[in-house]
Structure formats: structure tokens, C-alpha cells
Amino acid sequence: MQLSLVGVLPPGLSLVQTDPDTGQPTYGKALLTGKPTTVGSTTLVFYAENGIQPRDVHSLTVRVTIPGDVNGDGKVSCDDVNFITARYGIRRGQEGYDYNADYNMDGVIDVRDTAQVTPYLPAARDASSFDSDNNKELT
Ligand SMILES: [Ca+2]
Ligand SMILES: [Ca+2]
User: So what's the pLDDT on residue 129?
Assistant: First the structure.
């Protein structure tokens, strides 16, 4: 099976279709790997063809955010915590579920999600290692 990609991957990401141990093609499997360098969202389209069956088409949206920015406004603030707490108790499949608020992706929005986001709040960071003006780690 051949996988083809239409679209541009976010900078820093690549699609790997070879086994890292053997270097042989991984027919029918692909791995999106790397560390994205730019915040944003892009939709990719994958075509799977085996030469026998009709072409199978799937789309995938890759959303790159800064850690802790659950509401997607480009910064980490109390609004992100409020975004989560406003959805406490909502489970995957229920009305109002937002996967962005389910930060640990365990299927329920609760205090555990808040606990994973609060360390990214500027006030919780060491001022010597965090550039609050640009909302990113100093390197
Ligand atoms: Ca935010
Ligand atoms: Ca959760």
C-alpha cells in the first residue's frame, strides 16, 4: 500500500515511511515525527492506494500550539485555566466536550487537566527561564 500526502507539513515535522531500525519501507504505515517550530494549524490529506482497491482518502488537521495554550489565542494565561474549568465533568462524546480542554487526553475534563496547564502560566515560571513578553522559554 502506498501512502501519499497532499499539503505542507508544519516546519520541523516530517512524514516517515521507513522502519527506523531496518530502513525498509513501512508499507501502509507512516509516522509524523519531529518538533514543530511554528504555531499554527494545517490540514493534510492522505491517499492510500494499493493498486487494487479504490483509493482511500483521509484528512488530518495538525494544530501546533505553545504548551498550555488550550484556547488557541497564542498565549498562556488564566483564560486557559478558565477554558478548562468551564468544562469540568464533561466527557468525550458528551455535548460540550472540547478536546483542547482535555489536556491529558484521558476522555474527561477535570482538575487533572488544570494541573497540567497551570505550570505553563507565566506567574508559575521561573522568570530567569521564561520570556513572558514573547510567551516562550529562553534558550
Ligand atoms: Ca491561551
Ligand atoms: Ca482530561
Answer: 58
How many domains are there within the chain?
2
Q: H/E element holding 114?
A: helix 111-117
Ligand nearest to the CA of 67: 1
Tell me: do 83 and 107 sit in the same domain: yes
Domain that holds residue 29: 2-64
Based on the number of CB atoms within 10 Å of its own CB, is 109 exposed (0-12), middle (13-18) or buried (19 or more)? buried
pLDDT tens digits, 10-23: 899 998 888 888 98
CA of 89 to the centre of ligand 2 (A): 9
- Report how far ligand 2's centroid is from the alpha carbon of 7 (Å): 31
**Which region, left, alpha or beta, applies to residue 106 given φ > 0 means left and ψ of -120 to 50 means alpha?**
alpha
CA–centroid distance, residue 65 to ligand 2 (Å): 17
